[in-house]
Amino acid sequence: MELNICHLYPDILNLYGDRGNIITMKRRLEGRGIKVNIDECSIGQPLNADKYDIFFIGGGQDFEQEVLLRDLSSGKAQDIRTAVEEEKTFLAICGGYQMLGEYYKTWDGVQLDFIGAIGVHTIGAKERMIGNYMFRTTPESGDTVVVGFENHSGKTYLSEQVAPLGMMLSGNGNNGEDKTEGARYKNVFGTYSHGSLLPKNPVLCDFILQTALNHRYDGAEPLAPLDDTLELNAHRYMQERLSHNG
Ligand SMILES: NC(=O)CC[C@H](N)C(=O)O
């Protein structure tokens, strides 16, 4: 078996080591003898979307998001919308997550029209939401506790067609108001979690990889367990600290 991963805008959207998510997916697949091919696709490069099983988009600040608008509208936005509807697997972090949505109105009133691949929109607030945080994914997204780090001024709101990725246990998540965190639409996993998400959350990583394998291979076997002692220690350490913060 093999999976093809596309890292979108790796040179522009890569806050807080978001690239670590790519390394983690690669290692966890190779640990099961599954071949992984990783391509990078940035400004000015055509996106050969049919080739890929997983698309990864990291986070970026308002400025970087604005810089990408022209490149997206030159064709990539449509390619991404099509891949989402074809139920390809996406993992999008913070600014990358916002970008898959409809629009982002920054706190100082600039409206960035994004690609509308998922029914979410984002409104900037003056006060940033920053800190370690924790949420539990919904049963449809693995029912697992995720620890991470958020840093955003955008407050994201989900339309009725889009489910949250999870519900907050500690911290702000989508908007600090409705207790939701991230988005799940078809096989898109959007989240505010940097930090880096997948190294500390191997259960979520395997859930995402399994989603992509099931899409590519009919009757794909469940992924075999790995030795996750180190990863789960890091996870437990964060979970314990965050449990005390409420
Ligand atoms: N960390 C990020 O990706 C930031 C995203 C967005 N620019 C915000 O501040 O809301």
Keywords:
single chain, 246 residues, alpha/beta, Rossmann fold, 6 helices, 12 strands, 30% strand, binds glutamine, EC 3.5.1.2, Lipid II isoglutaminyl synthase (glutamine-hydrolyzing) subunit GatD, cell wall biogenesis/degradation, peptidoglycan synthesis, glutamine amidotransferase
What's the short version?
The chain is 31% helix and 30% strand. It is of the alpha/beta class and 246 residues long. The structure holds glutamine.
How would you sum up this structure, described in words?
By secondary structure, the chain is of the alpha/beta class. The chain has one domain (2-245): Class I glutamine amidotransferase (GATase) domain (Rossmann fold, 3-Layer(aba) Sandwich). 31% of the residues lie in helices and 30% in strands. A hairpin with a 2-residue loop joins strand 11 and strand 12. The termini are far apart. The protein binds glutamine. Residues 15, 59-62, 65, 94-95, 98, 151-154 line the site of glutamine (GLN). InterPro entries: Class_I_gatase-like, CobQ_GATase1, GATase_3, Lipid_II_synth_GatD. Its EC number is 6.3.5.13, 3.5.1.2. It comes from Agathobaculum hominis. The active site is at 94 (nucleophile), 194. Substrate binds at residue 128.
CATH topology tier name: Rossmann fold
Q: Are there runs of 5+ residues with pLDDT below 50, and where?
A: none
Strand arrangement within the widest β-sheet reads: 2-1-3-4-12-11
Tell me the helix content: 25-40%
Which strand-content bin applies to the residues?
A: 25-35%
Radius of gyration, whole Å: 17 Å
- Derived from helix and strand composition plus strand pairing, the structural class reads alpha/beta
Our count of helices gives 6
